[in-house]
Design goal:
alpha/beta; Rossmann fold; seven-stranded parallel beta sheet; three-stranded mixed beta sheet
Length: about 300
């Protein structure tokens, strides 16, 4: 089976690509290498690995790459509210328009598995779990464009979308700016963090379980297709203060304080049910605690912000 991944050298792609190659899939990655990363260098020994430097918005490039693809995984995106705010045109054209073009150019037989974000739920109701049937109320440009892209992908039917919780964990193309990754970095190197609106809750998932769910979706495509799936840890619907308490179990000198004034620009606040994906037989391997231990080891190596998106 031949798989095309756009944005395959990013944070998720740099873990997913070698995972797929190790399972015997042929993988072609399209990436513009905007972050000057070399995270796929270790994949070059695979005969089934091909790399194309280019832009996911170029129709001629996409047409050529689609000719040999059985499965398409559109990872290319500007990710996170701050980066999207800095480049609104790029966010719209990459996160939404390029995916709609993919859907238009792909044949009905070609399968699309796409990650979106459970931030589309926006602000949930207190004590009420968001399911795949809950209304989507994105509150950031990032969330809006991902909801648009998901709608286009699911309308073509031969597709699966994964509404990812906030991802954490080490990647060859690291992002220190993601919430768990950021807090662990600060706990290790600064030993302190000031929290705004610490009661806001969200769900979390380890990056290697993200790669695992794509494998699961490919192998179980016929029984899973045409639906969205929340992908997160059922025991990790945590507030920022609860997350810090978990980190402090591993780094006892960590001090965290909630600011009496000030706001978090990311207003997401919800809890999520992952029952649908669990009912397909998928089980995450990585707990939050295990991921924190991994990050502490990783941050013994990384000591600057070159690995973040913003």
């Amino acid at each position: 089976m031949k798989i095309l991944i756009t944005g395959g050298a990013g944070y998720i792609g740099s873990v997913l690509t070698p995972t797929l190659l190790s399972q015997g899939y042929e993988v072609t990655v399209l990436d513009n290498f905007i972050f000057h990363q070399h995270s796929l260098a270790d994949c070059c020994h695979y005969d089934g690995f091909q790399i194309v430097r280019g832009d996911c918005r170029e129709e001629d490039t996409i047409k050529t790459l689609l000719k040999d693809a059985d499965v398409i995984i559109p990872l290319a995106a500007l990710v996170g509210a701050p980066l999207c705010k800095n480049d609104k045109i790029g966010t719209q054209t990459i996160n939404s328009d390029a995916v709609k073009m993919l859907c238009r150019l792909a044949s009905k037989e070609q399968r699309i598995l796409m990650p979106v974000t459970n931030s589309g739920y926006g602000i949930g109701e207190a004590g009420k779990y968001c399911t795949e049937d809950s209304p989507l109320r994105p509150i950031s440009l990032y969330g809006v464009t991902k909801v648009e892209a998901e709608k286009a992908v699911l309308e073509r039917e031969n597709s699966i979308t994964f509404r990812l919780a906030t991802v954490f964990g080490m990647s060859p193309r690291m992002r220190v700016d993601l919430l768990v990754n950021d807090f662990v970095y600060r706990a290790l190197h600064d030993r302190a963090v000031v929290i705004f609106e610490g009661h806001f809750k969200r769900n979390y998932i380890h990056i290697r379980d993200v790669a695992k769910v794509f494998l699961h979706g490919i192998k179980n495509f016929e029984t899973m297709k045409s639906k969205p799936y929340n992908v997160g840890l059922d025991d990790a619907n945590l507030s920022k203060l609860e997350l810090c308490a978990e980190i402090k179990k591993h780094l006892p000198n960590f001090v965290y304080l909630e600011a009496p004034i000030g706001e978090d620009p990311d207003k997401r606040d919800y809890i999520v049910s992952n029952a649908r994906i669990l009912n397909t037989g998928f089980e995450p391997d990585w707990s939050l605690s295990r991921g924190i231990k991994e990050l502490i080891k990783g941050y013994t190596i990384l000591r600057n912000s070159l690995y973040s998106n913003i």
